[in-house]
């Protein structure tokens, strides 16, 4: 393998990188406006990345501080056998963990642990709510109890994924909830639902319409623990599709954390494909 060297002129790499990212999202079935919006997200912070080449391909890496920990990221890798160089570079910058975003399969990162996935599916044009469920809007009076339950579930999911401690997960939860719900119950574009069966509350839903072009993001479609295993999980996914169409969007997207195999199996069986996968490796 030729020596890998850092480059200063990144124009050739960047043109190719943007085309590769767009091609991956198009291959995943994204509309052009959605693919372009996802590309914009993928390019966040690109000016701070370090780019290297061996003359046959490219490596793009970067680091950031998160919750007091230096995290390395491999943003692009087309150099055969270049992963070791990227990991070593991250370690030399003080990183304790390396993360990577993949579209179209894990590629050379199959041994990295799954941190999370973005899943997506076009919603049925006229989704019919399950007859056993009654769906209504959550009331403002119910919001504080919902928020406390949602936050506890979110923290547990983060910890289960294995990348953060409970204390770090609590900090991330506080920051994320403040960012996504700056006005709480009245935050524009967000809708909250209660799902009932037999007169009993069995779960809740939280969606954000217009999260991306034509996309509703399902932040949560939660069936309460005592009601799980009764088929309500699949019904909740239909509620999400129904909410997507109610908001005027065509596709529903959501995130699932690594380690939640039950949820991943449910999403596989209901046709929600993996759009992006985030993987990580703890460094020595």
TrEMBL record:
Molecular function GO terms recorded: acyltransferase activity, transferring groups other than amino-acyl groups
Pfam families in UniProt: Acetyltransf_1 (PF00583)
Signal peptide: none
Domain N-acetyltransferase: 133-284
InterPro entries hit by this protein: Acyl_CoA_acyltransferase, GNAT_dom
Keywords: Transferase
Gene3D superfamilies associated with the record: 3.40.630.30
Protein name: GNAT superfamily N-acetyltransferase
Natural source organism: Kitasatospora gansuensis
